[in-house]
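Running this now, will post back.
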Amino acid sequence: GGGYNNGSVNEDLYDGVRLCQRGDVVVVTVNHRLNGFGYLYLAELGGPEFADSGNAGQLDLVLALRWVHDNIAEFGGDLGCVTIFGQSAGGAKCATLMAMPAARGLFHRVWTMSGQQVTGRTREHATADALNVLKALGLTPARIGEIKTVPMDQLMTAMRGGIWTPVVDGHALPRDPFSPDASPLSAEIPMVLGNTHDETRNLIGGSNPSLFALNWDALPAALAQNVKAFIGGLPPEKIVATYRELYPGYSASDVFFAATTAARARKGMVHESERRAQQGGPTWVYYVNWPSPADGGKWKSPHTIDIPLVFDNSEQSNYTRGSVEAQQLADAVSEALIAFARTGNPNTSRLPAWPRFELAKRPTMLFDTPPRVEDDPRGAERKLFAPIVYVQPGT
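Update: finished.
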């Protein structure tokens, strides 16, 4: 995770030892180049020498997968049964790998958590970002080669504020991963996609506590300010009226976080799951609905809450630490991942029957206590935002 900008697997939250102890699996966590070091696209300005610069971070992941292919048997692993999984930008990187020819054959299952990559950056957009970095460094395109000698701290300063996501460069990433359809490169690969019920309570609310004290008069402006790109021409007042009708017990802040989650955080997953279903690829969908008791319950089921569940590391997250219910849920979620890694199907005896996702009923696993399956959960919210053209964050 970390929006392609930051983050590291060198955190206790990503420790794979409990997964290894729970199931006969080998867990490999990988770091790779991030922000401009991984995604600064210089090919249009610098020529063949920089051909892969816009996807260097992704190609690091391909190298990691090649390492797994060549070496994992030494650790008891099966090079023919590799599952990639990631959360937030980590999930988006997995989705991107599904459309990269260089990664073909190096993984056999995909599990994404609150992270989708429907489209990549265009070359034009990415080149504009690169020109801004060169300008900040006092360089011209004619002097682009000098960027390799710029000290790291200066590079980091120049790249700050830029957009760093994979680029549809026609080479490493020849097409958008899930637009206008799911990449045929990975059609046969089993995939699990999931999100949490209240993604934006920390994604947006974590840096703006005032959003937890909104009143009805201020709500439309707050929606317009925070998710304008994701609601298109849909009037904020109509959004508010619809949510008040759907959920009469919600406060203004509850409506804000529910609507921003549906319009911004959930929409990409809806697109990807729909396009996988249209393709016929084996796909399962989930939401984490279990509300965290942390901080008096203000976060409910926020972004990142599925990480301690899938890794069976409930004691490593403030959202789940000390909760018996969280550990019960971690038992179920982590065993679903292990079953999926081994068989390509996430069903286990700890869960009710989890049907493959299809468009007629949209069956979805709700990870709660107890877990349950529901058809098209929050369907009215999905339909409200369905007409809005989706804009991939960072593109």
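The chain has a mean pLDDT of 96. More later if anyone needs it.
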